[in-house]
Design brief:
The protein is an alpha/beta fold and about 325 residues long. It is built from nine helices and 15 strands. Strand 12, helix 7 and strand 13 form a beta-alpha-beta unit. Helix 2 packs across helix 3 and helix 2 crosses helix 8. The protein is globular. About 40% of the residues are buried. The structure holds NADP nicotinamide-adenine-dinucleotide phosphate (NAP).
């Protein structure tokens, strides 16, 4: 039997993605074979295709940072999941496919009644926002925060989780996307035409407690300027190259040595144990189940139309998330 996946054959635009056929093999030791139902398209899928990240695998590869699906076959050594289980995982690669092989310890069970497009978005974007808010920053009600990139996939997760935590939010976004920030109680700032330092200093003369930066190093210096003494900037934007990674590391060290009472902390999902990720995914599944959060889904595409979905995200008009789905779920 065969299955299809989307292969990036060389660095470049969405046109370098090709549909290829693969043999459906038995899972290896400790592996489950998962029939993919949903996989989001995220900014990092685009960055690895273009080559805008350090330490990258060379093409060919199948993109797709996270998946949700049904266990379709297991190796006889597997004990933690069974055929028919609904599972999800942070895969980094391999999600743009009809099937994927994953080690059982990487899989988390997903409640059957959750919507697949909404639930799969929790695996990366909501995890990042949740862990930064609650594990890195440790926000309290009424803390004041600035979200850089507030209208995107991670940004809208920050808006919903920040509103739940009772923090006062400011967000940078293009003017056409301000409505979504206002919906969750954030004060939108148009970073194209407004100086956000001036806006925040005017509205919060004492400064704010946290800045969450999913963009580049260009936000480190201005971000520090709006913080109170004791404030923290959490940087989670992926560096574009090895030189920008080294510059970022140097900047983190230097900024944290400055005697100004402010700190920069870096965040990346790869730094955390799988047990901690699973603990937080289960909390997020429960929040979704109770209706406390509702991921913003801008568009849904069939998995094999990943190139068109990538084109839409690269176009810059998306508010929230794009999700690829198995055709029977569309
Ligand atoms: N460290 C980790 O583990 C981790 C995990 C996931 C994501 N990330 C990072 O998080 C970032 C966001 O990812 P995503 O998937 O949420 O992307 P996304 O959905 O494309 O959202 C990014 C948003 O940033 C805004 N933006 C673009 N340029 C900007 C600029 N110069 N200043 C301020 N805002 C700008 C865009 O909206 P506007 O039109 O409103 O500007 C866009 O909505 C990426 O850098 C990604 O690498 C890191």
């Amino acid at each position: 039997m065969k299955y299809k996946s989307i292969l990036v054959t060389e660095r470049g635009g969405p046109e370098v993605m090709q549909i290829v056929e693969n043999d459906l093999r038995a899972p290896g030791a400790e592996q489950a074979r998962v029939r993919i139902q949903a996989t989001p398209v995220c900014q990092d899928d685009i960055a690895v295709r273009l080559g805008n990240r350090p330490f990258l695998a060379k093409p060919p590869f199948v993109p797709g940072y996270s998946i949700l699906g049904i266990v379709d076959e297991i190796d006889e050594s597997v004990t933690q999941v069974a055929k028919g289980d609904r599972v999800a995982a942070l895969t980094n690669f391999g999600g743009y496919a009809e099937y994927i092989y994953i080690n059982e310890d990487q899989l988390v069970h997903v409640p059957n009644d959750l919507d697949p497009a909404e639930a799969v978005v929790l695996i990366l974007n909501y995890l990042v926002a949740y862990q930064i808010l609650h594990r890195v920053a440790g926000v309290k009600a009424n803390d004041k925060v600035l979200i850089v990139g507030a209208s995107g996939g991670v940004g809208t997760a920050f808006l919903q989780l920040g509103a739940l935590a009772g923090v006062k939010m400011y967000g940078l976004a293009s003017p056409g996307k301000h409505q979504i920030l206002e919906k969750y109680g954030a004060v939108p700032i148009d970073y194209h035409t407004q100086d956000f330092i001036k806006v925040i200093k005017h509205l919060e003369p004492c400064g704010i407690d946290y800045v969450f930066n999913g963009m580049g190093e260009e936000y480190l210096v201005p971000g520090m300027k709006v913080l109170i003494k004791g404030g923290v900037l959490v940087h989670y934007g992926g560096p574009q190259s090895i030189s920008s990674f080294l510059l970022l590391v140097a900047e983190l060290i230097v900024f944290n040595l400055l005697p100004n009472g402010k700190k920069i902390k870096g965040y990346g999902t790869h730094r955390l144990s799988i047990d901690l990720l699973k603990e937080d995914w289960r909390k997020l599944f429960a929040m979704l189940d109770k209706g406390q959060i509702k991921p913003v889904i801008a568009a849904k595409y069939p998995i094999l139309e990943a190139a068109e979905a990538n084109r839409q995200l690269e176009g810059g008009s998306v508010v929230g998330n794009i999700v690829l789905l198995a055709p029977d779920l569309l």
